[in-house]
Amino acid sequence: MAKDMDAYKNKMELVETKDPEIEKPVFRRPGFEGIKTLGEIDDRIATFIRKARDDKDLTRAELAPLLGLSMQVYGRYERAFSKMHVTRMIHLCEILGFMPMEMLFSAAPHLWGRTPEEARDTMELAQQVVSLPHGTKRDLLALYTNAPRACPGSSQIKGDYIFDASKLKTGPRASRNER
């Protein structure tokens, strides 16, 4: 059974475009400032990693050996001359202490929301959640999982769970049996 690719492109809000780095037309989702070329996205990633390195007060000469690279090879990433593989990005996250989503957000914030404000809020919320203690993350996840949600297009609440704030434990973390 053949997929309806036009319906898929519409659902994903993809538009056909040309990119100087690719011979054939490609489909992309426009960002807040239109469609950025792959080269422009590489430039944003390069700017991000340069700032992340500067924020750690490291020189290229200090960082490169930690990555198993020469200073010249590492410098190509900061100049957007070389494309970074995902494995190199993960390694940079380990060394410079940032989350991959932060780098991706710097390059394509439109993936986090329909407006710049929504995208910033989503990113800030994600960063806050990442920094929480594990027990708090588990509690938030349980709260979210059990919370009633409105059914799309209606005022009805899906599920029969009623949130009762009085049952939340304060002070030391509640054991699983107490929940």
Please summarize what this structure is.
The chain is mainly α and 179 residues long. It has eight helices and four strands.
Write up this protein.
- There is one protein chain.
- The strands form 2 sheets. This protein has a two-stranded antiparallel ribbon.
- Helices cover 49% and strands 9% of the residues.
- Helix 3 (60-66) crosses helix 4 (71-78).
- It is mainly alpha-helical and 179 residues long.
- It has helices spanning 5-11, 38-55, 60-66, 71-78, 86-96, 100-107, 116-131, 134-146, and strands at 15-19, 22-28, 149-150, 157-158.
- The protein starts with a helix and ends in a 21-residue tail after the last strand.
Features:
about 180 residues, mainly alpha, 8 helices
- List the uncertain runs: 154-166, 168-179
> How can the largest sheet be summarized?
2 strands, antiparallel
Spatial order of strands in the largest sheet = 1-2
Strand tally: 4
Overall mean pLDDT: 87
Give, in order, the helices and strands: HEEHHHHHHHEE
Termini separation (Å)? 47 Å
Give the overall silhouette.
flat
> How much of the sequence is in beta strands?
5-15%
Taking all Cα atoms into account, the compactness measure Rg is 22 Å
Helix content estimate = 40-55%
The structural class is: mainly alpha
Q: What is the count of helical runs?
A: 8
